[in-house]
Design goal:
Helix 2 packs parallel to helix 5 and helix 6 runs antiparallel to helix 7. This protein is mainly alpha-helical and 239 residues long. Among the domains are: 110 residues; 57 residues, no CATH class. The chain has a two-stranded antiparallel sheet with strand order 1-2. The radius of gyration is 24 Å and the shape is globular. The N and C termini lie far apart (66 Å). 65% of the residues lie in helices and 4% in strands.
């Protein structure tokens, strides 16, 4: 027993004195441990890369965690009800009950995203971390907090006008906000089951929609709808 305890003490001491390449607080590699190349230009590039990792990896981790929840719950949920052989009543009952869990995930994600972003603006994300902007965007788009989404839309509209974000991102959020205000959607991005077919409710001037979509870099509405119908499978007006 005494020998065993001495062995444990030795191992603990060794771990304490052994140099580590990891930041134990965050389980991330220490950028200070990365050897710089001899080539000056390459060394400068490495320094710049590592400075980005130091400054933004934690933000990327936090947003990525929320995005994983957001996407995973939908992949499983949709994958279970899209089977065309599923009884329509079973599908509707499953969607109604399972959808409650999806809504709860969205509620948690919304609050945590607010905390994660803190004082970071959507412009800052779009200008310096556009890939993180895209991930955070999905969380807001799926949020049940209508006022929060409307506030974010107001922030990102000038970004779309300046070309800092994809036109489709603005179109998706714009249509959803407008429908929630009982207004018409412009781009046909929001769908629901109408007479047993997934379609676009409240669409302004349908004959001009493809022109508006093209201005946002989006494909024709008919192609978009076909993709969504294949993704979500049969629909019921009970949804």
């Amino acid at each position: 027993m005494r020998l065993f305890m001495r062995s444990i003490a030795f191992l603990l001491a060794a771990c304490a004195t052994q140099p580590s390449n990891y930041d134990t607080a965050s389980s991330l590699p220490s950028t200070a441990s990365i050897e710089r190349p001899e080539d000056p230009e390459a060394a400068q590039m490495v320094d710049h890369f590592l400075s980005i990792m130091d400054a933004r990896m934690k933000l990327a981790e936090d947003i990525g965690r929320l995005e994983t929840r957001d996407q995973y719950v939908r992949e499983v949920f949709i994958g279970m009800f899209r089977n065309p052989e599923l009884d329509p009543d079973v599908r509707s009952a499953f969607q109604e009950s399972g959808g409650v869990y999806v809504d709860l995930i969205d509620e948690i994600n919304t609050q945590e995203l607010r905390d994660v972003l803190g004082n970071i603006t959507w412009r800052e994300l779009a200008e310096y971390e556009n890939n993180l902007f895209k991930r955070a965007f999905h969380i807001v788009q799926h949020s049940n907090d209508e006022q929060y989404r409307a506030d974010v839309l107001e922030e990102i509209q000038p970004l779309a006008e300046e070309g800092l974000i994809e036109g489709q991102q603005f179109a998706l959020m714009f249509d959803r906000v407008e429908l929630q205000k009982n207004q018409t959607q412009l781009y046909g991005t929001q769908t629901k089951c109408i007479d047993g077919v997934l379609d676009t409710p409240g669409l302004l001037n349908p004959e001009d929609v493809d022109e508006r979509r093209a201005q946002m870099g989006m494909r024709p509405l008919s192609e978009y709808l076909e993709t969504n119908r294949q993704l979500y499978g049969p629909c019921s007006n009970k949804q």
